């Protein structure tokens, strides 16, 4: 027994096929909250964490993208291959490979385990999802499996609090000796078959009857797409319907705070900064938290349920009309949350050209940062009334805006892909088991989202609105000047300078000013409008400042609002997206192309919308 704490940290790596629960184990070991999702390709980059075992050993653990084989076919798999081989940029191979396998799917996963074993490095096998395997009536003889593989085997449950107990005990034991590789010409499939026959009773778990029945509906050529359409539709309806009462509450709260601060502080720069800058600006963005959380709740549920790869499969024919494959579906769906993770998720796409096109169109998926802009304008200009008795007009318009984004993306892809899909074979995608999302995980996911959003409001958005407040307040007008003070400020002047370019779209100078901070984060446009109007409207009540929705209809025509909505469907301005495109493609040209075409589309579509709206 080793009584001395080792001087060196043990470096381990979690490797295995996609979707076997590596990240779930990683989170369990390190207490972190990396993305866990029920489809292949949730993790696309190497993540590092640290923890201490019960006996006090210091461990550094890597979570890696899942791989089907060490012969990598996509960029995310290449990371895993390189780390295992010890050829990853200046990083030695891990001391111990923790090979994770889905116990319910050993026929597939054991082959990769054998491939790893051929590396001849110390390794242990973590048979994960042992809970699901037992539920399916499988019995696995662990000692025998360990003997046949020549490596220690432990059972784990990535989603149970003490699910990594045996793995931790194994990590506290001395490092196992490296396995002896099989002769190079061994037929690994034959070995898998033999091991399964020896160690597993009921090696071919019949997927439960319920699951098969579900798939008959979900993958049905007619019902399948219909179910998908209804699902997406309900999703957008609820984003509006469920959020409204909560939003009204936050809105009123913000107005009340503004009023109190207004009464407490004497007239002056400080009061203006707090009321017109921070509360009107950042406060008007906070209002949208409920909507963003509802959207994320849906995305989390879809991700955990196992439905997404099935939707990708259903949409493969549609995507191929645009010259893409169903593989682009999950990256594009992630882009509804934010284009940054969406673009990173394209690493799972093997075909480089498909990957580039998917990156190109990801910004057209309406990200959650655009939701505040949409909702503000819809709430202010689209009447709240029922359509056909049960649909909500505002939700309908929101759905329409998302749909326009998606259709435009497919068109752009079609054009970028010209000759149709390349020589890529039929879509091969694993359909994971259906899983009921765990309410605790959903809650954790949502609080994490809320935290990120509020952090963003507290940092980026507050600083940008304060900056905008300063630009809108200074320089002060000269003595005896007439007209609103904001006309003399820097922001006022910039807005008036930009006006000739944007006036054809029906934008006024206040909108022009709001477009600038919107570059950094789109939702700031909302805060910026609130600030500009709060300062500009000398006579406005302080509690009005936070209630932009009531202010806008007095200042804008419906045509202007529609034009701005159209602008934001394409809205090229998001620095974070452009930065991640640069990182993922290592090409400034791609960045220029994306920014350029988005700007052109935004301009043309807003112009068309404005002119058409004026006609009616
Ligand atoms: N029943 C059960 N489900 C699990 C277990 N471990 C993970 N899961 C679920 O399995 C799915 C995949 O988990 P992940 O941790 O994302 O898998 P991964 O291996 O990191 O996947 P990639 O990053 O795509 O390679 C998720 O839906 C998890 O909730 C387990 O031990 N039992
Ligand atoms: Mg993962």
TrEMBL record:
Residues 9-177 form the FeoB-type G domain. The chain crosses the membrane at residues 222-243, 273-301, 321-344, 356-382, 394-413, 453-471, 556-581, 588-610. InterPro entries: Fe2_transport_prot_B_C, FeoB_GTPase, G_FEOB_dom, Gate_dom, GTP-bd, P-loop_NTPase. It comes from the Bacteria. Keywords: Membrane, Transmembrane, Transmembrane helix. CDD domains: FeoB. Pfam families: FeoB_C, FeoB_N, Gate. This is Ferrous iron transport protein B.
């Amino acid at each position: 027994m080793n009584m001395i704490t080792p001087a060196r940290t043990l470096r381990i790596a979690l490797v295995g096929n996609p979707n076997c629960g590596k990240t779930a184990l990683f989170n369990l070991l390190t207490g972190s909250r990396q993305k866990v999702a029920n489809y292949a390709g949730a993790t696309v980059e190497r993540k590092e964490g640290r923890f201490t075992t019960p006996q006090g050993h210091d461990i550094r653990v890597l979570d890696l993208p899942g791989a089907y084989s060490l012969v990598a076919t996509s960029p995310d798999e290449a990371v895993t291959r390189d780390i295992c081989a010890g050829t990853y940029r200046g990083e030695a191979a891990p001391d111990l490979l923790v090979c994770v396998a889905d116990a319910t799917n050993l026929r597939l996963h054991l082959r990769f385990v054998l491939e790893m074993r051929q590396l001849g490095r110390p390794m242990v096998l973590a048979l994960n999802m042992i809970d699901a395997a037992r539920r399916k009536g499988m019995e696995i003889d662990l000692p025998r499996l360990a003997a046949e593989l020549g490596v220690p085997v432990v059972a784990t449950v990535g989603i149970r609090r003490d699910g990594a107990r045996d793995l931790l005990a194994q990590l506290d034991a001395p490092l196992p000796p490296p396995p002896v590789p099989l002769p190079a010409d061994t037929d690994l499939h034959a070995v898998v078959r033999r091991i399964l026959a020896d160690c597993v009773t009921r090696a071919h778990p019949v997927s439960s009857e319920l699951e098969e029945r579900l798939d008959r509906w979900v993958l049905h050529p007619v019902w399948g797409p219909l179910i998908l359409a209804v699902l997406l539709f309900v999703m957008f309806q609820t984003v509006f319907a469920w959020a409204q009462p909560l939003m009204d509450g936050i809105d009123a709260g913000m107005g009340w705070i503004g009023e109190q601060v207004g009464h407490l502080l004497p007239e002056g720069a400080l009061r203006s900064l707090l009321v017109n800058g921070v509360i009107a600006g950042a406060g008007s963005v906070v209002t949208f938290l409920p909507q963003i959380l509802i959207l994320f709740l849906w995305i989390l549920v879809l991700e955990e349920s196992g439905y997404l790869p099935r939707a990708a499969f259903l949409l493969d024919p549609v995507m191929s009309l645009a010259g893409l494959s169903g593989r682009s579906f999950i990256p594009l769906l992630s882009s509804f949350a934010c284009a940054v993770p969406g673009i990173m998720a394209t690493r799972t796409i093997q075909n480089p050209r498909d990957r580039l096109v998917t990156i190109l169109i990801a910004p057209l998926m309406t990200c959650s940062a655009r939701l505040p802009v949409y909702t503000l304008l819809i709430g202010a200009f689209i009447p709240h009334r029922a359509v056909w008795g049960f649909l909500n007009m505002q939700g309908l318009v929101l759905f329409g805006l998302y749909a326009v984004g998606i259709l435009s993306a497919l068109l752009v892809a079609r054009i970028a892909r010209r000759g149709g899909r390349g020589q890529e074979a039929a879509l091969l995608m694993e359909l994971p088991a259906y899983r009921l999302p765990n309410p605790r995980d959903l809650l954790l996911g949502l609080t994490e989202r809320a935290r990120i959003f509020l952090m963003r409001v507290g940092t980026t958005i507050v600083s940008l609105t304060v900056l905008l407040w300063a630009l809108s307040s200074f320089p002060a007008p000269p003595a005896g000047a007439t007209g609103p003070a904001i006309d003399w400020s820097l922001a006022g002047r910039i807005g008036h300078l930009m006006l000739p370019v944007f006036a054809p779209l029906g934008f006024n100078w206040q909108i022009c000013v709001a477009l600038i901070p919107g570059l950094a984060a789109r939702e700031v446009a909302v805060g910026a409008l609130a600030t500009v109007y709060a300062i500009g409207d000398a006579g406005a009540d302080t509690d009005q400042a936070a209630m932009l929705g009531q202010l806008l209809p007095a200042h804008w025509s419906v045509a202007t609002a529609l034009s701005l909505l159209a602008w934001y469907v394409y809205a090229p301005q998001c620095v974070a997206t452009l930065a991640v495109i640069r990182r993922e493609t290592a090409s400034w040209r791609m960045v220029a192309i994306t920014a350029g075409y988005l700007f052109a589309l935004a301009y043309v579509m807003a112009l068309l919308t404005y002119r058409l709206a004026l006609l009616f």
